[in-house]
Amino acid sequence: MDDLDVADAALLIMHYQADVFSILANDVPTDLLDRTNSLIARWRDTENPTIFANFAIDYESPCENNMLICNIMKTGYFRDPAPVTGLDVAESDWRYACPRANVFHGTTLHQDLQAKGIKTLVMAGIATSGVLFSSVGWSSDADYKIYIARDCCFDPDTVAHDALFRTSFATRATIV
Q: For 9-175, CATH number?
């Protein structure tokens, strides 16, 4: 990633939050948080935006047609978009509470990026088959240049994880 022109770039860390780590507690690699914090620390040297986008379902306005949201609402999770303990979040970072898996849906993230002239996204997230799949597809369609920090992404379904990086992501992003 050293050759990345960061003049118009932002780092987007998605769903690194307490509920996700709680649900996946026994599956998340023990060094995932360390690798991601290392990426965040290196990114801060660029002085470009570091963005944390976490799931926060609006339990007052359910969507009966959205199977994912309906199933999650049965669990009571994702009322609070609090980051996982130990994540390197600074006061100056951008934070978004996202009502859907796609971090752009129902938020001002795209408009805020456009206002700052951001055209390139370095992305990482949990789970690969959820937030990353949804958000990479959307941001590709919105013409962002995308880099995915594979070592900072995770999915408990390793087959799906590997398949997405081999297929869908390989045609939309540079994998770093």
A: 3.40.50.850
pLDDT tens sequence for the chain (176 residues): 556 778 899 999 999 999 999 888 788 888 999 999 999 999 999 999 999 999 999 888 767 888 888 888 888 899 999 999 999 999 999 999 999 999 999 999 999 999 999 999 999 999 999 999 999 999 999 999 999 999 999 999 999 999 999 999 999 999 99
Would you say the pTM of this structure is higher than 0.85?
Answer: yes
d(CA 15, CA 19): 9
Q: Domain residue spans in the chain?
A: 9-175
Please report the DSSP string for 39-90 in residue order. Answer: HHHHHHTTT--EEEEEE---TTS--TT-HHHHHHHTTT--S--PBPTT----
